[in-house]
Amino acid sequence: MQTKHSFVDQIEETLIALLLGLMTVVTFANVIARFGFNSNILWALELTVFMFGWLVLLGASYAVKKHSHLGVDAILNMVSPGAARVMGIISVGCCLVFSLLLLKGAYDYWAVFADLPPTSGRWFPTGFADKFRSQSFYEVQDVPMVGFLRFLEDLINYGDEYEKLPKVVPYLVLPVSMLLLVLRFAQAAMQIWRGETDRLVASHEVEDEIEEVRAQQGEQG
Fold first, then answer.
1. Is 181 inside a domain boundary?
2. Residue 124 in 3-state DSSP?
3. Which residues contact 196 (CB under 8 A, 6 or more apart)?
4. 27, 48, 57, 154: which one has the fewest Cβ atoms less than 10 Å from its Cβ?
5. Count of helix runs (H) and strand runs (E) in the chain
6. How far apart are CA 62 and CA 13, in angstroms?
7. What gap in Å lies between CA 194 and CA 190, rounded to an integer?
8. Measured distance between the N- and C-terminal CA atoms of the chain, rounded to whole angstroms
9. Predicted confidence band at 148 (pLDDT cuts at 50, 70, 90)?
10. What is the pLDDT of residues 75-104, one digit of tens each?
11. Is residue 11 one of the residues assigned to a domain?
12. Does a structural domain hold residue 208?
């Protein structure tokens, strides 16, 4: 199980690092083109914005998994372990509901670009809409279409060619990242329920204390 978790961690960390590295390379190349050759990479800014969005949204769910989000645990440190666990379950329950709302909104926003029906229902999905206006022909402003994605023209654009990258591609991160966020909060809920932790986010002081206790237990063992 640990090996599986490490493999998944490596995939997420590699993707996040790749996005950050590509952002740096594209931005640097555009600066060189502008000041060194009096030119401009037209699509550089837009691509960087999209990659930054992917970085933030994917990083949000990864940070939940690693308990790395900022949090205040002053009240949890003042109550009994049982009360802290109950408060942790309530907190993660609120986060789950909120992330489910985000998932519905993210899918509904992305679906029309993929020629798919959005969900019905105001807050939570009750099915799929019978009628919707497809926006699969919408393109980004500057990023050109790439060859290996040409299959999307027949798949969702009824055979019409894309000149620029279709919006369905960069916006895919919306439902994917929100689904990951739901899964991460569900995993955190299970950890609290099983008593493995009593909070979503531990302060750095608590993390240091936990590591110190583990070290002492290792020395005693």
1. yes
2. coil
3. none
4. 154
5. 6, 4
6. 9
7. 6
8. 23
9. very high
10. 777 778 788 888 889 989 999 999 999 999
11. yes
12. no
Q: Distance between alpha carbon 43 and the CA centroid of its chain, in Å?
A: 24
Tell which phi-psi region holds residue 107, choosing left (phi > 0), alpha (psi between -120 and 50) or beta.
Answer: alpha
Short-list 18, 105, 101, CA closest to 54: 18
Extract the tokens encoding 10: 């490596």
Report yes or no on 142 lying in a domain.
yes
Report the alpha-carbon angle 204-55-9, nearest 5: 60
Q: For the chain, how long is the longest CA-to-CA vector?
A: 69
Contact 178, 102 (CB under 8 A): yes
Cα gap 159→150, rounded to integer Å: 10
Range of the domain at 127: 2-200
**Domains identified in the chain, total number:** 1
- Find, among 87, 202, 201, the residue nearest to 213 by Cα: 202
